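Reopening this one. Same input as before:
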Amino acid sequence: MKYGLSLLLLLVLFTTPAWAQEEDDVEPRPNRRERGGGIVGGGGGVAPTWSFINTATLNRELAAKGLPALSEDGMFMFGGHGYIYTMIIPNLRVGGMGYGGGMETRRDKDGQYQSVRLDVSSGGVTLEYVIPLGRLHVAFGGMIGGGSYTLTLTQSDNAGKTWGSLMPSNPASAVDSRHELVNSFLAVQPTLMLEYEVHPFVNLGVQAGYFGTVGEDWKLDDNFDLMNVPDFGLDGAFARLHLTFGLFLGE
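Same output, byte for byte:
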């Protein structure tokens, strides 16, 4: 056994320099991360989002009407995204995304049921320029598109209901009320993201940005123009996680 191990050790010592010499003589194979031309590929995935939506002004207006306030800690939203690298301009990618979420507050006040619900939905076209630093990428750009805020206000006696009490012939006798206010807007969303190529088929990114809207017209119950609505100023910052599946080749 000792003689066999000694012989094997000598064989390794003498053959290793020869292998090294052969490897030096062979032209190195190009690394895909050292090629020029930018990243090639695209993909899609999920985008859970935490929106720091500004509900402070809205809550003041709700309180003036005796209605409960919404949370001021933010809102969870969920959606999806996709993109493809254009290859016309290296490392420029174009895509799209859509997402939505909501929050609600309910309470019983002196035998009266009250509910306030705010739903947000948005989507659009994304355009981002990516700076590759190996597997780590820095992407900046944004989204432009549209969306809507939907504010639903409900107030009713907290008691059993009968068919006869629904939509009475004399509106003055109605005791229940439920109104849906909808504001459609143009959405503008600048973003900055750090993403890491976990695998040539998987990217994980963390994105931050600001969600801004343009549009002040509100509709009431899908039929009536609602005038003199205060500027609720709901726009705010957000943080988003991007999990993208696809094919990513390049620098």
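So the earlier flakiness isn't reproducible anymore. For the record, The chain has a mean pLDDT of 84.
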